[in-house]
Design brief:
By secondary structure, this protein is an alpha/beta fold. It has three domains: 153 residues, Leucine-rich repeat, LRR (right-handed beta-alpha superhelix) (Alpha-Beta Horseshoe), CATH 3.80.10; 155 residues, Ribonuclease Inhibitor (Leucine-rich repeat, LRR (right-handed beta-alpha superhelix), Alpha-Beta Horseshoe); 108 residues, no CATH class. Helices cover 24% and strands 15% of the residues. The strands form six sheets. The protein has a 14-stranded mixed beta sheet with strand order 1-2-3-5-7-10-11-12-13-14-16-18-19-22. Strands 4-6 form a two-stranded parallel sheet. Strands 8-9 form a two-stranded antiparallel sheet. The chain binds 2-acetamido-2-deoxy-beta-D-glucopyranose (9 copies). Pfam families: LRR_1, LRR_5, LRR_6, LRR_8.
C-alpha cells in the first residue's frame, strides 16, 4: 500500500515538474545492467545481420533509456533493433536514444500525453512506430515530432514506414504532419474521435502519397473526402468499418486500380446500388458485414468486381435478398460468407458447362476455387430452387452446429440443408403441398389414428371396469358363502380402485382390473 502511494506521489511530482520545466533536464531510466531488468535478446540470420530485442514491458518505468544496452555493440550499421516499452507509465516520450539501426519501437498502453520534439531525430532509420493506446492529442502531434536532423538548409526526413496511432485522443491532424515521413506506407488512426475530417486533416492524409494501408475504422466519420482518394494512388487496403457512413464514399474509384481490400462493416448503409463499387477493378476482399440497416443489395452490384476473392456479408439482420448471380463473374472467389442475414433463398442457374475430353458436358462449378461458403443462421425456405442452388455451388459439409438449416416450410424446419437432396425436394410438387402436409406427421399424430386410439382406450377402460366390478361382486358372494367372513384387505383394494377411477386415473384401473382378472382366473 505504502509503495503504491509513494508511486502516486512520485508521479504527481513528476507531472508538476514537467508542466513547469523544459523537457531537456528530464532523467532517463538507468541503463546500467538494463539487461537484468529488461529482456535483451540477440540473434543473427544467414547474412550475419544482427537482430537485437529489448523488451521492457511492465517495468513501472517513467522514462525510456538514454542509450542502447552495451550488449547491442557500438556499431549499429546494418543492425535491426526491436524495442518495446509497452505497459509502463511514460507520460512524456523523450527523444529516442541514437542509433543507425533499423528500428521498431513500441510503447503501447504507456499513458503517453506528451512527445519531446523532435522525438526521432537520432533514429533516422526508424521503420515502425507503435504508439497505440495512449493519450496523444492533436495539439501534441506536431510535424516537428517527426523531423530528422538538420542539414545545411532543411530537415532530413526519417524513414518511418508504419505508424500506429490507434486508440489515442486525436480529432484532427496538422496539415504538415507527414512532411518528414515521405516513406510512410501504413497508417493506423483507428479508434480516434475524428467525427469530421477538417481541411488540415484532409491535407495531411492527402500528402502521404505512398500510403498503401490506411485504417480509419471507428473514427466516427460520416464521409471521406474525394480529394484524399485523388492523392492516395497507391492505396491497397482501406478500413472504414465502424463509422457513420451512409453510402460508399464518393469517387472511391479514384483508387480503383490499386485498392485490393475494402472494409465497410458496421456502417449504417441501407443499400448498395450498381454504382456503389464501380471502378474497383482490383478489389479482392470486401467486408460488408454487421450492417444493422442494410436492406438490399441491388442486382448487378458485384458484376464490376471480377477480381473478388473474398466477400464477407454476414450479420446483416435486415438483408432479405442477395443476388448471387451477380457474383458469377467473380471466377476467383474463394470465400463467401452470407451467414446470419435474413435470407430465405438464393438462386444460381447452372449456366456454365464443362466439356470433358470424351465430349461429355457436365455442369462446371460457378466458383471452382470456392472453399468456404457460410450460410448458417438464415431463415432458409427449403424448396427445389434453394436445394438445387446449394448443390450446384457445392456446399461443404459443415459440422451440425455451424451448418445451415431450413426454417420453412414447417415440415423441414430444423432440418440440415446438407441432409436434403434436390431429387427428394424437387419431386414434391406445389399443388400437392396440402397432401404433403397431411402425410408428413408420423402415423400416431394423424387425426383418424388419434380418434381410433381414443375410442379403443375408452372401450378397454369400460370393459376393464365392468369386469372388475363383476369379479368383485362374484368374489364377495363366494367368500361370504365359503367362509361367512369378509376379508378386510379385499375391500381396501376395491375402494382404492374406485377412488383412482373417480380421479380419472384410468390406467391404474385397467392395470389393476386386468391384474385382478389374471390373478383370479
Ligand atoms: C524511402 O524509400 C526509398 C526507397 O526504398 C529509399 O531510397 C529512401 O532512402 C527512403 N527515404 C528515407 C527518408 O529513408
Ligand atoms: C489498427 O489498430 C487496431 C487497434 O489497435 C488494430 O485492431 C488493427 O488491427 C490495426 N489495423 C491494422 C491495419 O493493422
Ligand atoms: C481493418 O481492416 C483490416 C483489413 O480489412 C484489418 O487488417 C484491420 O485489423 C481492421 N482494423 C480493425 C480495427 O479492425
Ligand atoms: C468483417 O468485419 C466484421 C465487423 O467488423 C468483422 O467481425 C469480421 O471479422 C470482418 N471479416 C474479415 C474477413 O475481416
Ligand atoms: C484469377 O486469379 C489468377 C491467378 O491469380 C489471375 O491470373 C487472374 O487474372 C484472376 N482472374 C480474375 C478475373 O481476376
Ligand atoms: C450464362 O453465362 C454467360 C457468361 O458466363 C452470360 O453471358 C449468359 O447471359 C448466361 N446465361 C444465362 C441464361 O444466364
Ligand atoms: C472441367 O473439366 C476438367 C477436366 O475434365 C476438370 O479438370 C475441371 O476441374 C472441370 N472444371 C470445373 C469447373 O468443374
Ligand atoms: C422457391 O422459393 C423462392 C423464394 O420464395 C421462390 O422465388 C422460388 O420460385 C421457389 N422455387 C420453386 C421451385 O418453387
Ligand atoms: C441427417 O440425416 C441422417 C441420416 O439420414 C440422420 O441420421 C440425421 O438425423 C439427419 N440430421 C438431421 C438434423 O435431421
Amino acid at each position: 500500500m505504502d509503495y503504491k502511494y509513494m508511486l502516486l506521489f512520485l508521479t504527481l511530482g513528476a507531472i508538476a515538474a514537467l508542466s513547469g520545466a523544459q523537457h531537456e533536464n528530464i532523467p532517463y531510466e538507468d541503463v546500467n545492467d538494463i539487461c537484468e531488468t529488461c529482456v535483451c535478446l540477440t540473434a543473427h540470420d544467414g547474412d550475419k545481420r544482427y537482430h537485437h530485442l529489448l523488451s521492457c514491458t511492465l517495468k513501472r518505468f517513467k522514462h525510456i533509456l538514454s542509450r542502447w544496452p552495451e550488449e547491442f555493440g557500438k556499431n549499429h550499421n546494418s543492425v535491426d533493433i526491436v524495442a518495446t516499452f509497452s505497459y509502463n507509465n511514460i507520460e512524456l516520450l523523450q527523444q529516442l536514444p541514437a542509433t543507425d539501426a533499423k528500428l521498431t519501437f513500441s510503447c503501447r498502453h504507456c499513458g503517453i500525453k506528451y512527445l519531446q520534439e523532435p522525438t526521432f531525430i537520432d533514429v533516422p532509420n526508424i521503420r515502425r512506430l507503435d504508439l497505440s493506446w495512449n493519450e496523444i492529442t492533436s495539439d501534441v502531434l506536431t510535424p516537428g515530432v517527426f523531423r530528422g536532423p538538420y542539414r545545411v538548409d532543411h530537415y532530413e526526413p526519417i524513414d518511418l514506414v508504419d505508424l500506429d496511432l490507434s486508440h489515442n485522443k486525436l480529432h484532427a491532424l496538422d496539415k504538415k504532419l507527414f512532411e518528414h515521413t515521405p516513406n510512410l506506407t501504413k497508417l493506423n488512426l483507428s479508434y480516434n474521435d475524428f467525427t469530421v475530417f477538417n481541411a488540415p486533416t484532409i491535407a495531411a492524409l492527402s500528402s502521404v502519397t505512398n500510403l498503401q494501408d490506411l485504417d480509419l475504422s471507428y473514427t466516427a466519420i460520416k464521409t471521406v473526402s474525394a480529394s484524399i482518394f485523388k492523392s492516395l494512388v497507391n492505396l491497397r487496403i482501406l478500413n472504414l468499418s465502424g463509422n457513420q457512413l451512409t453510402a460508399v464514399p464518393d469517387k472511391l474509384q479514384l483508387v480503383g486500380s490499386s485498392l485490393m481490400a475494402l472494409n465497410l462493416a458496421e456502417n449504417p448503409i441501407e443499400r448498395f446500388t450498381e454504382q456503389s463499387f464501380i471502378g474497383l477493378k482490383s478489389l479482392q476482399s470486401l467486408n460488408i458485414s454487421d450492417m444493422p440497416a442494410l436492406k438490399a443489395i441491388d442486382k448487378r452490384v458485384f458484376t464490376h468486381l471480377e477480381t473478388l476473392r473474398r466477400l464477407d456479408c454476414a450479420h446483416n439482420p435486415k438483408l432479405v435478398e442477395f443476388d448471387l448471380e451477380g457474383l458469377s463473374h467473380c471466377s476467383n472467389l474463394t470465400n463467401l460468407d452470407i451467414s446470419y442475414c435474413a435470407l430465405t433463398t438464393i438462386f444460381v442457374i447452372a449456366n456454365v458447362t464443362n466439356k470433358s475430353e470424351t465430349g461429355e458436358t457436365t455442369l462446371a462449378k460457378p466458383w471452382p476455387h470456392l472453399h468456404t461458403f457460410e450460410t448458417v443462421g438464415n431463415p432458409w425456405y427449403c424448396n427445389c430452387t434453394l436445394i438445387q442452388s446449394m448443390e450446384y455451388i457445392g456446399l461443404p459439409q459443415g459440422s451440425a452446429d455451424s451448418a445451415a438449416r431450413c426454417d420453412t416450410p414447417y415440415y423441414f424446419a430444423g432440418e440440415l440443408i446438407s441432409n436434403l437432396t434436390s431429387q427428394q425436394i424437387c419431386s414434391l410438387r406445389i399443388p400437392k403441398k396440402f397432401k404433403i402436409v397431411e402425410e408428413e406427421p408420423p402415423r400416431f399424430l394423424r387425426k383418424r389414428y388419434i380418434i381410433l386410439s381414443v375410442i379403443t382406450a375408452a372401450v378397454v377402460v369400460s370393459v376393464g371396469v365392468l369386469i372388475g366390478f363383476a369379479i368383485a361382486a362374484i368374489r364377495r358372494r363366494l367368500k361370504r358363502d365359503d367362509f361367512g367372513v369378509e376379508p378386510i384387505r379385499y375391500t381396501s383394494v376395491r375402494s382404492s380402485n374406485l377412488s383412482a377411477f373417480s380421479h380419472g386415473n384410468t390406467n391404474s384401473i385397467v392395470v389393476n382390473g386386468n391384474g385382478a382378472t389374471n390373478g383370479n382366473l
